[in-house]
Amino acid sequence: MMSTMVPTIIGLNEATKGARDQEENRRSESRSQRCHLIATCEVSAGSRAQRQQIHNAKVYLDQDYKFYITKYPSSRMGPFTGQYYEHPAFEENNSSGLITMSPENPPLARWVYLDKETNEVKYGGRKDGEGNVCGPFDWTEDEQYVTLQGNERWLAVRLPEDTRKEQELEDLGLADGDDAVKGLWRLYFDRSGSVGLPEGAETMQIRLKREPAEE
Asked: What ranges does the record give for the region Disordered, renumbered to this chain (predicted)?
């Protein structure tokens, strides 16, 4: 009887391994797929005006190497268009890094990192990320939302200077210009429960949803 069971057990093991390999290939392909990032927030978060500016707004990169959230980007901005990628700071064959195409001319693949001093999300070359938080970036169990160091402590931040600049452009009648940005928020990550923002800064907890980018 044992002789008849052995082929069955081997067949089951091979089927299990095949399914596991297939799932690993699917996961790897999904992680390498380029995507945009969409900010989402709870219906009870912040004020109605804040939710209107943030919820379902895309994440953009500006040429100051910082990340922004807005529904009205300027002509110098480009949407986050990136993917998980192997980072030299982590174990071999990882996909714990995050890269994105930059709005530079010509566009370049840049690393995403968190400034350890300001907790602001930025992008740059490999040396720019050294000494800062380069990951590990991952996704939630449903593979829909981005995490950093296993958490979703993303923050949309609006500094007093952002509000002041927007008002100045409106007063000058330049609010609809190519370089004007309405409802601008910055992207931060709260690692310690205290981001250390200037007085008067507005904050809102958000999630970053992955949206497949058109090839």
From this structure: 1-33
